[in-house]
Amino acid sequence: MRNLFFTLCTLLCFQIQAQDEPATGSDGTLSFAVVETVPVMVGCEGLKGNDNLKNCFQEKLMRYVTKNFVFPKEATKAKVGCKIYVQFVVERDKSISNVEIVRGATGAYKKGNKKEKVAAKLLDKEVIRVVKGLKITQPAVQRGKPVRMSFMLPVNCKP
User: Fold this and answer.
1) What is the DSSP letter of 12?
2) Domain limits at 50?
3) Can you count the helices (H) and strands (E) in the chain?
C-alpha cells in the first residue's frame, strides 16, 4: 500500500506567459502577461471562452498530476516532502518542452542526510516525468496565431 498525500497548491497562482517571435534582433521570444486563448488539454475540447478554457485547463492539469504522480518509496521512508515549482513550455506544435524544476526538493534538502538527498532528487524527477507526459490538443493562441506558452506550476508533495 502506498502512502500518498498529494495536493496541487493554488493552481490559480501559476504563472502564464506566452511567447511569440519578435520582428528582428533579439533572442526570438516576447512575453505576454495574458494570451487570447490558453492551450487546450484533453477533455476541454469544444469549450468556448478563455475563462472556461482556463478553468478546465486548471482542473484537468490538477487531475492529471494527481492521477499520474507516484510518490517515491524512498521519499516516504525518509519523510521527505515539500512544494516543488516546475516550469514548462507548451510549444506551438502542442508538445511539452523546457521542463525544469525552478525550486524543488533537491534544494530544500541540500543540507539533509544522504537518504533525504536521494529521496528529494527522486521527487523532483517524478514531477518532471509527470509534466512531460501532459497531453495538449491545441496550443495557446495570440492574435490568431499559435504561440509558445510558459507555465509555472506549484506542486505540493507530502509523504
Assistant:
1) G
2) 5-158
3) 4, 9
Residue 111 φ then ψ, to 5°: -100, 10
Mean pLDDT of all residues in 60-81: 94
Distance of alpha carbon 46 from alpha carbon 19, whole angstroms? 24
pLDDT, tens digit, for every residue of 73-115?
999 999 998 999 999 989 999 999 999 999 999 998 999 899 9
0.90 exceeded by pTM: no
Q: Enumerate residues 6+ apart whose C-beta is below 8 A from 77.
A: 115, 119
AA letter at 98? N
For the record, the C-alpha cell of 109 comes out as 534538502
- Quote the number of domains for the chain: 1
Q: Residue 140: what residue type? A: A
